Amino acid sequence: MKEKLREIVNSALKQIEEAVDGDKLNEARVSFLGKKGELTQVLKSLKDVAPEDRPKVGQLVNEARETLEKRLEERKKEFEKKMLDLKLATETIDVTLPAKKPMIGHRHPNTIALDEVKKIFIGMGYQVVDGPEIEYDYYNFEALNIPANHPAKDEQDTFYINDKLLLRTQTSSVQVHVMEKEKPPIRIIAPGRVFRSDEVDATHSPSFHQVEGLVIDKNVTFADLKGTLAEFAKRIFGEDTKVKFRPHHFPFTEPSAEMDVSCFKCRGKGCRFCKNEGWIEILGCGMVHPNVLEMRGIDPKEYQGFAFGLGLERIALLKYEVDDMRLLYENDVRFLRQF
Q1: What does the alpha-carbon distance between residue 215 and residue 226 come to, in Å, rounded to a whole number?
Q2: Is the pTM for the entire model greater than 0.90?
Q3: Which residue among 3, 5, 130, 194 sits deepest, i.e. has the most Cβ atoms within 10 Å of its Cβ?
Q4: Is residue 66 within 8 Å of 102, Cβ to Cβ?
Q5: What is the pLDDT of residues 35-48, one digit of tens each?
Q6: CA-CA distance, 242 to 264, in Å (whole number)?
Q7: How far is CA 242 from the centre of its chain?
């Protein structure tokens, strides 16, 4: 047995020395130390050795294994050193080349505008809330005083999933959820994505973003609404901004109005930006309709409120003087880097 082990070790060492690369070295390892290797087979045959000789034979096998493993590791390091020396000799680094500049991300114009809107209203004591984009028809229309077959549904044609579920057309539905869960006083804004089956053009998209606001408390009047939105306009467009309210109709508010701001390009004199009118429409608003309050279990004689809704893209387009809404969604890095 001792002679047989000596022959195996000598044969293995010879094959290890003759190995020219890592693959050949691995073949030598498998041939002698693998599961079916020669030294492994000797170890398995110990059961046939006389019990009194097994410790001595086992020691000889282990010594042989240690000898081969030690030489394999030495040869492996030799090959690794040769590979490193070869790379150092053949590969060069031009230290005069300019370093690669990492691409740093940038906030989208919509995100910048939304953060500014949030900051303004949070400063006024408003809470930012969120809601589902897939909404029940009830919350999107009926709970907002728009019953089935109401003409207002035609103005907000949307994408229906079935007869009860749809993609929300406005974040006003979030206001309904809040009124269900919380008791007045309520002071919230609800930003989010909405959907309408509009054709894509410079000012329309089937998917866009809104920021809806709601205030419900005792003794709330239209004067509170005007003061709040006037302050918002000055914060977002500049201290010289003036506001104008025009009567309008929304099913969920009464009275209702559209709010315009004085053109911040020409200061109300008239220019291409405001179509020579001196004013730019930015949002709709009004006092919360008593029916909406009653449906949520709020007594309109005790509590009043106002609501408003603005298009986030419209704010971004006006603020950054962009004339085509599609530019916001084309993901052209050259465009986005400007903000």
Answers
A1: 13
A2: no
A3: 194
A4: no
A5: 777 777 776 666 66
A6: 9
A7: 36
